[in-house]
Structures are given as C-alpha cells and as structure tokens.
Amino acid sequence: MRYFRLLVLGNGISAYGSYLNMVALNVFVYDATGSALAAGLFMAVRLGTNVLSGWVSGRLVSVYDRKRLMVGADLCQAAALLTLLLAPDGVRPGLLYVLAVVTGGCSTLSQVALRSSIPEIVGAEHRVRANGLLVTGRSLAMIAGFASAGVVVAELGYSAAFALDAATFLVSATVLFLLPVRTRAAEDPTADGSAKAPGAARGTVRVLLATAPLLLAMIAVRAVDGLGSSSHNVALPLYSSSLDPDHPATFISQFWATWAIGNIVAQQVIARVTAKTGRTPGERAFALGACVMSAGFIVVFCGLPTLPAVIAALVAGAADGFTETVYVSRLQAAPDDQRGRLFGLSASAENTGFGLGMLVSGALLERFSPLQVVAAFHGLAIALCTALLLLLVVKGRRGPGPALEEPAADRPAVTEGRG
C-alpha cells in the first residue's frame, strides 16, 4: 500500500488540476468567444466525448498496458493545455474544441484504466480501502480546485491557470511512470499488449443481461444517479441565491465543504468495517446507500435552517462516498479480463446520465423550483434503488445466486498489502 499512497497523491494532484481546469476553461470559452452558445457547445463536446470514450476506453484497457495508458492520458492532456497556452490569441477559440475532445477522452480513459487496475496494484482484499483513499483524495481535490479557481484566474490570469493545470498532469504522469506497480493480472495473456480477437468487447450489455443482471442493474442505478447529481449541481447556485442574494456563494461553500467531510468520514468507516469483518458490502448496501444519498440531497433543498441543511449535506456526502466505494469495489470483483469493459460501460452510462441531466434540469429550472427539479431527479433514483432492493430480497429468498454474493476467494481476511 505504500506505493499506492503515492499513486493517490499523484491522482489527487491531477484531479485538482482537472477541477481547476473545469472552472477556468468554461469561463475562458465565454470570455474568448463572447457567446453563451459557444460555451454550451464546448461543454457538450466534452461531455459527448466522455460518453463515447467510455466504450473505447473499455476496449483499450482490456488489451494494452494500463499503466502506459494512464501515463499517456496525462501527457496528452498536459500537451493539449500547453498548446493552448502557447497558441496565438486568434487561434485559441478553434483549439478549445480540440482541447475538449482531448481532455474528455483522456480523463475517461485514465479513470477506467485506474479503476480496472486497483485489485492488481493492491490485491483484491485491499481494494475497498484503496478505493476509499482514491475517493477521499478526489473529494479534497474537488474542493481545492473549485475554491482556488476563481482566485487563480482573477489574480494570475488564464495563462497561469492553464500552466498550473498542465503541471499537475505532468506530476501525475511522472509519479505513475516511476512507481513499480503491476496493473494487470500476471496470467492475463494480453499483458504484452497483443490485441484480442476482433469483437471481443462487443455485446457487453447482452453478456451482462445473461450472466450478471444485478451488475447491469447497478450500472443503471449509477446512470440515474448521474441525472440526480446533475440536478443538484445545476440547481445549487439558484437555490443559494434565493437564500442570500447578497452572498450567493456562502451556502454553496458550506454545502460542498460539508459534503466533502461526510464523504471522507464514510471512507474511514467503510475501511474499518471491511478490515474488521473481512467482507465487502454488496448490492443491498449499495442500493440502501444510494437511497439515503438521494434523500439527503432532496432534504438540502427543502428550505430548512442552516444547521439541519448542513446535516443533510453531511449525510448525503457520506452516503455518496459509501455508495461509490461499494459500487467500484463490486465491479472490481469481476475477472481482470472483464473489468475494462465493465468500467468502460459504467463510465459511458454515468456520463450519459450526467450530461442528459444537465440539459434537462437546466430547462426545467426555467419553470420549476430547485426543490421540485431535484426531488424529481433524485426521486427517480430512489424508485430505481427500491426496485433493485425488492429484486434482491426476492432472489435472496430463492437462495443466493452468483451475482448476489462475491466469490469466497474475494473475501479473505485483510493482510499486509502488496504495495
């Protein structure tokens, strides 16, 4: 695990750059073009690339060396940002859409490759703990990136923001390149980069329906969770402005800071419980956690006093972190040669849900209140999770099937890691 902690540090640094970049680039697009349509098109191109690259990434990480893919993805993003930084002002608007494609595709590829590699880097018995560390690092990076973006752009300018972002990717690529970690099962015949038979990655959804329908149901829940997540992200500035028109950023800051605290606490709890019991929470825990998460987000927008609203954000953050760790850990229980396609499908589903939700929730907020929109989207997630729970109960009464419990070999007592 000592090597993995360094990997978490490098990943957190690049995540900070990504969140800083998310704010700086969106503002820069509008300033450079003077067009809200151009800014929206930039976001649409990036989200569309995220969706499409999920399928491609799943195939790539199933065939090629994952460590090299992650290093290459970081270097490509750094090169794209440096190109934008050095380009003449007249060329920059056209390069923005190229940058959207590069950053969207490479970020998805890096995420799919890393998640697929965790069991091989730390050992299957440590994957829950490792996933918790990654989620914690990314949560802290998100808060730092969003909080500092305005200051960096206002005080130092766009060029400094782009240079800082490129530097974070270079640091991440260097850390990954130097770490002596294995990212693929030793017995995998494709470890040398040779391609599998054409079409090996086709029909992922059909295969899941036949062999692991509950995994497919979990992926569907994550897609609907993406809808819910987009709704509260879009509604939060409007709701915060209605609470305090003179200081609209106050509630937003409180919300995300509290959410991050809950997220981090959840990682500590799940790591300790897993270490004590030697078991990984499964589908039922995932569905229950997703219900609590969505309910918490709905309560945040109910117009409660500050303290109850902050407590609801804390609960939502804790449930959010818990469900993500359980979900990723469950998909990682699949054999190594299947993980890439699973995480590729998952990335496409989640990004589709989030992108579609951004468009629909933005339109609905023109006519409905933030509470109504958030309740509708997260209520849909609660309904789907409830259906999944009922399915699990019914199947449980018939006897555990292969997708209900993790294989026995995947539940050893926690021992010292391989890092």
UniProtKB/TrEMBL annotation:
Q: Where are the transmembrane segments?
A: 7-30, 36-57, 135-154, 160-179, 205-224, 251-273, 285-304, 371-394
Q: What InterPro entries does the annotation carry?
A: MFS (IPR011701), MFS_dom (IPR020846), MFS_trans_sf (IPR036259)
How does the protein's chain sit in the membrane according to the entry?
Multi-pass membrane protein
Alphabetical list of Pfam families matching this protein? MFS_1
Major location category of this protein: membrane
Q: Does the keyword Translocase apply?
A: no
Out of the domains of life, which is the source? Bacteria
Per UniProt, subcellular location reads as: Cell membrane
The answer, when asked if Magnesium is one of the entry's keywords, is: no
Q: Major facilitator superfamily (MFS) profile domain location, by residue? A: 3-398
The signal sequence is none
- Give the PANTHER family listed for this entry: INTEGRAL MEMBRANE EFFLUX PROTEIN-RELATED, MAJOR FACILITATOR SUPERFAMILY ASSOCIATED DOMAIN-CONTAINING PROTEIN
Q: What is this protein called?
A: MFS transporter
Organism name: Streptomyces olindensis
